[in-house]
């Protein structure tokens, strides 16, 4: 019998966007582009998800370059993967503020084992995007930053939410990271497809770290209250 780990790893390996994107936008697929990301994420899921415990989904926006774009694990940068999860990472030790916040919250929740026994974090769009910045360097891009991009990936988003639900996750409640455009998009999508009975939206970790860092303890408390499902 397959476990959540088996199904998640198979899902990650199968991720592929075959449509066309607006000019200047590149899709980022760590599972196809990086053997390190596939190996690290597979080790992570085998460590924490090799069971059939009931879990709720948490959906963020889409992967970023310095977190899951490298590790293949949502909101887990290489630093946290090594220090908090005890999993080796042979690549660069990048730091992502969102990951820092999430692992502080997980510590307050009761630790990584307790948290991942109850929750699975991924993204509304499971692959990320980049554009070339004015400085000539790639920068992160969100699926909702461009209407043409949102339209292009809409069927891909729907298909992959359906696929993840079919892995066996709970559908009474889904948590959403992002109370602006991400929440608005997700609620409209859920009205159409009825994926979940209820959506609880929380401020995105990046927003908290960038604009509300002094209030971080209050936001962690808010998260912990929301996770009492």
From TrEMBL:
A Pfam family annotated for this UniProt entry: UDG
Top-rank taxon: Bacteria
Coiled coil segments of this chain: none
CDD domains hit by this protein: UDG-F3-like_SMUG2
Domain Uracil-DNA glycosylase-like: 48-228
Gene3D superfamilies: Uracil-DNA glycosylase-like domain
SUPFAM superfamilies: Uracil-DNA glycosylase-like
Protein name in UniProt: Uracil-DNA glycosylase-like domain-containing protein
Naturally occurring in which organism (per UniProt): Pedobacter caeni
